[in-house]
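[job 0412] stage=fold_complex status=start
inputs:
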Amino acid sequence: MLTLGIESSCDDTSVAILDGDKILANVVASQTIHKKFGGVVPELASRQHVVAIDSVIKEALSVSDKSLGQLDLIAATHAPGLVGGLLVGMQAAKGLALGSGVPFLGVHHLEGHLSATFLTDDPVVFPHLALVVSGGHSQIILAEKFGRYKLVGGTRDDAAGEAFDKVAKILGLGYPGGRYVDERAKLGNPTAVPFRPIMTLKKSGLDFSFSGLKTAVRNYLIDNPSLDEQGVNDLCASFQHTVVEVLVRKTTSAVKMYNVPAVQVCGGVACNSGLRTAMRAAGAEHGFSVHIAKPALCTDNGAMIAAAAHRRFAISGQSPMSLSPQANFPLDTL
Ligand code: KG4
Ligand code: ZN
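[job 0412] stage=fold_complex status=done
writing structure:
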């Protein structure tokens, strides 16, 4: 089964071609225009997708040495995300499908993230709990089987990646900031700044909240205006430690509540070195397996969309050409 997957829901234009779950090509064009604004500007993102999409598709076909007529399925993210970007990817996919007679399928972005480990030699097993942590989402999902999901916990305000990005912005570390905070945290002391643990299980169940912690970082900087390099490293390490602790603690509690054997971590924040290490340690301690794709498959990419697409196609067939992009679309209503 040859699947072409397009991802354009945020600021990456990506096209991949899979043979089954074997990646033949996974081309990612990341937009840099948003750096100077410290966040994604939706209208600029849409325009950049328009500029990039044709050449990214051509490159994926060329790298994989395949032609359109050889494909079995052409898929694109249809929800959730920035509507302008989704529209570009979907129109490209529909156009290719119409022109070549290959079926078209719209894919849910989070089902894409949930499918990233299928592309590794350590694919997640069902049932499992998925911690989906990205720039736009922070959720704990019970995945009973492919296509059947139940949202069991989530953020009440900022997504985890958003909190990383905002803290990086306050500290002037660059955008998107998660990886800069991660790099700084490696050089710092995680107990240097005693942030209060956020959202206990008793108070908030499996939900979490990050906006209070972000404000605590801002207040700490007001009280300590002239932090040296080590001070910034310590602040990053303490912030990251607090976020990771709550994510791992709540996921571990969910494993016990739902009695599942496995956990996967996906979405851009799954690149975080502290989270990867802490979740693996929790798995070893509490007896669940932990599956995390390599970082390039955790951030947005076309390969995860194609991996979700051929599985979804086997369940529900192709999408109508009338399918339109949607900004919000809960995964458990799929
Ligand atoms: O999944 P993704 O590429 O896009 C969305 O669907 O949102 O995730 C991007 C997010 C950004 O917030 C980025 O800062 C964060 O993932 N991120 C990280 C790391 N690498 C990327 N956050 C923490 N540590 C990292 N190493
Ligand atoms: Zn994403």
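[job 0412] summary: The longest helix spans residues 229-258.
[job 0412] exit 0
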